[in-house]
């Protein structure tokens, strides 16, 4: 794999989750541009640096031996990548801390390095939280590949930080440098809320939630087909988002034992709050994790899933396939994976290959509801 070389370090980095013969590298030209910019501006040894949305630790690992670094983002996989890449490159972890995006990183910070995220609502919430966290003379710089840099990103930087200057493009990457100015404390528009009729719920959604303003149509297609005769069976909502599938299943099955898992910290935060509102103190496990990777084998009777088909800006079904594999391992004999997917993705073929069986539960013009059973 290519080595990330900057004035700060030369690093051998891996992505998470790891794949054999990984076709994609764990950094890009925007990471290189941000590091070069910081080097040219100068970085004192006691500088406090906040890194936002560092997908695989390229920025934080590069700076780990040179400054006090705080890395913050909404991806548990990014956190795992950071930890793995620090160890892989023999870098000290003692001076580096990670703060989930569900919490506020406490400053003051001298430098803020931002990778512009796919969801601009997340960027907006992060910029709002920077209020009062910047040291005098702080530098705030955001970077992205040109194809992933919407004009609105600069507008948000200007609104919440100060005047913005765009750099020249280098290797199809661009930086946006914002000069902090005194501003009134902003009011965050997040979390947002929406209501659904069946089951009758109001759902809270933090900034980085998928379909934050309304129930996505895939989940809407799956909801009527959740089983209602589970007794005390063990159920996982894999990739739970705001928790709607797990919550609806729990409401229909008062004795069922629920686990809700997502790799997004804001999703887990939303799911916890929604569970509390709908089910009070009913026992549940809700956690940020690498899917069901740490779930004991054979410990589940049912896995519910509306799998993603992208990781950040990379589109593909490798995450879904991995979730299917995790579900297969975690299910007990005769346990079932119940999922919804776009028709064109052909999940039934993958499920037949993995489980040896697959049945179509229902279909809409766009989606199919599929079930696969773990065989003896």
From TrEMBL:
Its EC number is 2.1.1.174. InterPro entries: DNA_methylase_N6_adenine_CS, RLMG, RlmG_N, RsmC/RlmG, SAM-dependent_MTases_sf, Small_mtfrase_dom. CDD domains: AdoMet_MTases (cd02440). The keyword Membrane does not apply. Keywords: Cytoplasm, Methyltransferase, rRNA processing, S-adenosyl-L-methionine, Transferase. GO terms for cellular component: cytoplasm. It catalyses: guanosine(1835) in 23S rRNA + S-adenosyl-L-methionine = N(2)-methylguanosine(1835) in 23S rRNA + S-adenosyl-L-homocysteine + H(+). Residues 2-181 form the RlmG N-terminal domain. Its main location: cytoplasm. The keyword Repeat does not apply. It is found in: Cytoplasm. It comes from the Bacteria. Residues 201-370 form the Methyltransferase small domain. HAMAP family: 23SrRNA_methyltr_G. Specifically methylates the guanine in position 1835 (m2G1835) of 23S rRNA. Belongs to the methyltransferase superfamily. RlmG family. This is Ribosomal RNA large subunit methyltransferase G. The lineage of its organism: Bacteria, Pseudomonadati, Pseudomonadota, Gammaproteobacteria, Pseudomonadales.
């Amino acid at each position: 794999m290519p080595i990330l070389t900057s004035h700060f370090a030369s690093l051998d980095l891996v992505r998470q989750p790891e794949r054999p013969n990984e076709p994609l590298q764990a950094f890009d030209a925007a990471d290189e541009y941000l590091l070069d910019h910081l080097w040219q501006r100068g970085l004192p040894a006691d500088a406090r640096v906040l890194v936002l949305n560092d997908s695989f630790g390229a920025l934080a690992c590069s700076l780990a031996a040179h400054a006090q670094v705080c890395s913050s983002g909404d991806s548990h996989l990014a956190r795992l990548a950071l930890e793995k890449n620090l160890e892989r490159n023999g870098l000290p972890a003692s001076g580096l801390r990670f703060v989930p995006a569900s919490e506020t990183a406490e400053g003051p910070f001298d430098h803020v390095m931002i990778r512009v995220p796919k969801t601009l609502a997340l960027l907006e919430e992060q910029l709002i939280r920077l209020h009062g966290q910047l040291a005098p003379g702080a530098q705030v710089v955001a970077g992205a590949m040109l194809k992933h840099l919407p004009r609105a990103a600069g507008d948000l930087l200007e609104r919440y930080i100060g005047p913005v200057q765009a750099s020249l493009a280098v290797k199809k990457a661009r930086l946006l440098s914002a000069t902090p100015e005194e501003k009134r404390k902003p009011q965050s528009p997040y979390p947002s809320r929406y209501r659904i009729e069946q089951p009758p719920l109001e759902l809270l959604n933090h900034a980085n939630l998928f379909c934050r303003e309304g129930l996505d149509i895939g989940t809407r297609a799956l909801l009527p087909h959740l089983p209602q005769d589970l007794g005390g069976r063990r159920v996982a909502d894999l990739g739970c988002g705001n928790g709607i599938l797990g919550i609806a299943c729990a409401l229909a099955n008062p004795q069922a034992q629920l686990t809700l898992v997502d790799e997004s910290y804001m999703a887990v935060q939303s799911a916890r709050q929604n569970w509390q509102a709908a089910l009070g103190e009913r026992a549940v496990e809700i956690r940020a994790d690498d899917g069901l990777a740490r779930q004991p084998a054979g410990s589940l009777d049912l896995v519910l899933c509306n799998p993603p088909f992208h990781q950040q800006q990379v589109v593909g079904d490798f995450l879904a396939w991995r979730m299917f594999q995790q579900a297969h391992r975690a299910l007990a004999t005769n346990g079932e994976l119940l999922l919804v997917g776009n028709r064109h993705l052909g999940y039934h073929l993958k499920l037949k290959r993995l489980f040896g069986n697959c049945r179509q539960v229902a279909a809409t013009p766009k989606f199919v509801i599929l079930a696969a059973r773990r065989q003896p």
